[in-house]
Amino acid sequence: MIGVKEKKGFSLMEVMVSVLLFVVIIMSATEIFRLVIEGQRNAIASQNVQESLKYFFEVIGKEIRMAKRDNGKCVDVPDDKIFMLNAGANVLKFRNFYDECVAYYLETDGDNQRFKIERTKDGVLASGFISPDKIRIESLDFALDETGQPLVTINIKAYALGENRFKSEMEIQTSISSRYYQ
Amino acid sequence: MIKQLKTNNKKGFTLVEIIAVLFVISVGLLGVLSLIIQNIQSQNLNKNNIAAYQLAQEGLELVRKVRDTNWVSGPPVQAWDKDLDDGLYYMDFKDSIPQTANSGDGGLYKDANGFYVNTGGIALTNFTRTISIKHLGARSMRVYAHVSWTDRDKTFNYDLETLLYDWR
Description:
The complex is a heterodimer of chains A (182) and B (168). Chain A is an alpha+beta fold and 182 residues long. Helices cover 32% and strands 34% of the residues of chain A. In chain A, strands 1-2-3-4-5 form a 5-stranded antiparallel beta sheet, with helices on one face. A 3-stranded antiparallel beta sheet of chain A has the order 6-7-8, covered by helices on one side. In chain A, strand 2 and strand 3 form a beta hairpin. Chain B is of the alpha+beta class. The mean pLDDT of chain B is 88. The interface between A and B is large, with 40 and 36 residues.
């Protein structure tokens, strides 16, 4: 018994200090871990928004540059014009390089809004969304300047769906001048 | 008492050791934190870069439209570079020709429909765009679009350049 008592233990103070230290270190470690994960989610959300807007501009930019003056093939586009913009300035229609009648606009998809593209060739319609369902396209506005060579201006606001802090809202505008000369 | 004195002979940590340990730990934490902050900042930079790229591209397209309009206009046939003399300009999609810019000009505003414009806007945005034109010869010119913006008191730039010719 005497031998057992001689073993050295920890005093209450030592235990309390070490527990406190342990708690502080673990808490700061988890906090850093949480921040890293949050930053990562933020980065992914913002990358998704950037990617889908870049893709949209890639697709629409190429098609607008190559658009042809209408020859009566596309009923919605006035003859001898290249582009048609509706009164709300949010639907753009034209005849593309492959003689398809194309329309770009925003369409409601459940609670969400996404880019939609319609291509009609010889009366056959093909259409689909070209932005992911995780991204909300808040607005899509066009402006059309037909004095001289036509110029289409596109303005987009978009953000990632989900929690507000991972929204990473973006607004992009560009203009594209038609490459079609008669 | 004698026993206690003896047990107090245990070796502890010296102050220098403790400070060294704390230093190492805080350097580690600071490293991680600055990584997070940098990550967020570079996301922001990326975002602005994309918007600036599209605005710069718009600047080039606007000049191109002026040249193309000169081409298709007439009769009488216009010079291909009418209204495109050498100089520094600002121009938005509502302008039909470039506007001469003095220093400080070119700030982009939001108009009532949310479009970026130089004149007639409501709210000033972070972005400034100027366009400069320089002829290389009688039938070619170099066009620069320069977009700059500030973020946390730092100025960033995005420059695009294209050559326009009098060739159809």
